[in-house]
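Lab notebook: predicted structure, single chain.

Context: the supervisor wants predicted structures on file for every construct in the current expression panel, including those that have not yet been purified. This is the next one on the list. No modifications to the sequence; it matches the entry in the shared construct table.
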Amino acid sequence: MIQAILFDLDDTLYTSFDQLNAAGYDAVSVWVERELGIPAADFREQAVAARRYYHTILHAEPESHDRVVQMQRALEVFGINPIRYAQPLHEIYWQTLMDGMELRPGTPELLDELHGLGLKTCVCTNMMADKQMEKLVRLGLADRFDAFVASEEAGRDKPAPRIFELCLEKCGCAPQEAVMVGDNRDHDIGGALALGLHGIWLNWTGRPHARYRCPHYEAADMYGVRKCISEILKKEGISHALFV
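Prediction complete. Output recorded below exactly as produced.
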C-alpha cells in the first residue's frame, strides 16, 4: 500500500531552473563588471565554464553544485583573489534565482490533499541542503513536507540509490510503497524505478520519448500528477473523496 510521495524540487515544484540559472549568472557578471572592472560577458563565460568543469571532475558529487568554488575558479582566471568575493557572488547568484522562482500551479493544494489522505511527503533533491531548504521556505512549502533529503546528505546525486533509500527510511516505507515525482527522466524516474518505487515523470516541457524508456506514469503539470497519483492509489485499493 502506498505510504509516501517523494518530490524532486528544481523544475518540479517551481519553474524554470534553466532560465533562473542564466539570470543568476547574468546578475553576478553585471556586479563583477561594475565592482571589479571585468567585462560582464567575459566573466560570465568563465563562470559557466567553471560550472561545467566541476560537473565533469565531480560527476554525481553534490559538491559539483557549489557556486562558491565556481566563482572562485572564475575569479582566479582574471587574477582576482577570490577570498573576499566568491561568497558574495554565490549569494548574488542564489538570491537572483530564488527571486524569480514561480511555484508550479496546483502544488500546495496537492500536498495538502496528500496529507489529508495520511500520506507522507518528502523532498528528494540534488544540490546542497542549505539552498534547497531556503528555496522551500521562499516557495511557502517548508511546512508542507514531512521529510527532506538532499544529495549532500546522501553523498551522491540522483540517480544513485542512496538518496532514495534515505527518503524511504525517513518515511518509514518500502520502495513499492512510495511514488517519486520529478521532471528529470533519468535522475528522478530512472533512479526511482531501478530501486522499485513507482514513478511519475513530470514532463512539463513536452519532451519526446525517443531517448527514454517509457516511465510508469507521465504528466504535463501538477494537475496531471494528481491524476496519476489517484490512478496509483486506486490500483492499490485506496479510494478517497479528495481524489474523486
